[in-house]
Specification:
The chain is an alpha/beta fold. The chain has 16 helices and 16 strands. Strands 1, 2, 3, 4, 5, 14, 15 and 16 form an 8-stranded mixed beta sheet that branches. The chain has an 8-stranded parallel beta sheet with strand order 6-7-8-9-10-11-12-13. The two termini are 29 Å apart. The structure holds N-(iminomethyl)-L-glutamic acid and fe (iii) ion.
Length: 417
Amino acid sequence: MAKKLFIKHASELVTCAGSFPKIGNAMNDIGIIPDGALIIENDTIIAAGTTAELQQKYDGEDMTVIDATGKCVLPGFIDAHTHLVFAGNRSEEFSWRLKGMRYLDIMERGGGIMNTVRATRKAAKTELLELGQSRLKAMLAMGVTTVEGKSGYGLDLITEIKQLEVMQELNKNQPVEIIPTFMGAHAVLPEYKGRSGEFIDYLITEVLPVVAESKLAAFCDIFCEQGVFSVDESRRLLLAAQKLGLKSKLHADEIVQLGGAELAAEIGAVSAEHLLHISDQGIERMAETKTVGVLLPATAFSLREQFAPARKMIDAGVPVALATDFNPGSCYTSSIPLVIALAALSMHMTPAEIITALTANAAAAVGAAERIGSLEAGKQADIIILEEPSHLFLPYRVGMNLVETVIKKGNVVWQNK
Ligand code: NIG
Ligand code: FE
């Protein structure tokens, strides 16, 4: 049996211990242990406490040691919303948006998501795998140990399955774990223009059953947006998916206030995401049902839209998570440091709330709260070590990557040295 791993003398061990998702003031409780330590056996944390406690308990055992003196140790970040498997790029559309053209107008003209759909349909699986691998490597270097990945650049059976299979393959050949989401309802195919309901019928009858049968996705998501899919269409698809065992997520109230947040609460979705234009009633309903609000400040920034009302949501009792939304259209960045900076400086979240939103509440958003998101005995050993002594440095050193070491399932998988 492999030797145990002893991480000791962390100036701050941020455990994020407790029950998930964390709500209201509990988001500020990140369970800091000064001079903290962890014992890891294989892929699991078996003890968390002060260095003195654990040194005494495991006295005399021959263990591999990591000395974290002067460093902050925290749970691996979970990026709970990305679209990471795609081909091509939309740099030209971005330049149009810089001149003032609107995202939905570009989409309406056949650009936007359809542009990426065309490139992704053409791409060989090997190309998508290589692209996925290099994107995940960049995420890992910023402390991401788990990522949610959405399909949705196929919009037909073959390419949706191809994207999901690429994610399955990536799960085997690199360390960042991917939680897969089926998002065949990402845009309306041009041949269904003006008949989005019929496109939903097609997804329900032809695509969903194959996705469910193949067990390639844990969640089903839909772009519930003006000019894309209505609240009624979203309800229909997500309930059909639930019947087949796929949990619900929604792109909700991103550009126009449609009532996606209310729908998420109504149908027991695990999360509603974006929420830039969430209504007060939507906030209330999500707080009642503890639906996680996954907020994506880098998208609001890239679209030059207002930020989601994070403060109002947290204060009203909505469990809030943060993610990048990495995708080639609205937000081509997987930068966790950028998300942290925007959450602190533009959304008025506290440093502790931001950490909860990237760990504990993100774990709840991807349906993995019992396994990841905190540093406690029994949890998977997904851990990051910062080059600074306190979590307060994360927003303070604006836009900088402070991650020095990343441990996934008990193994050191990244070192910035
Ligand atoms: O989260 N809103 C829909 N989906 C993405 C954008 C995808 C794209 O433009 O390629 C989003 O913003
Ligand atoms: Fe998205």
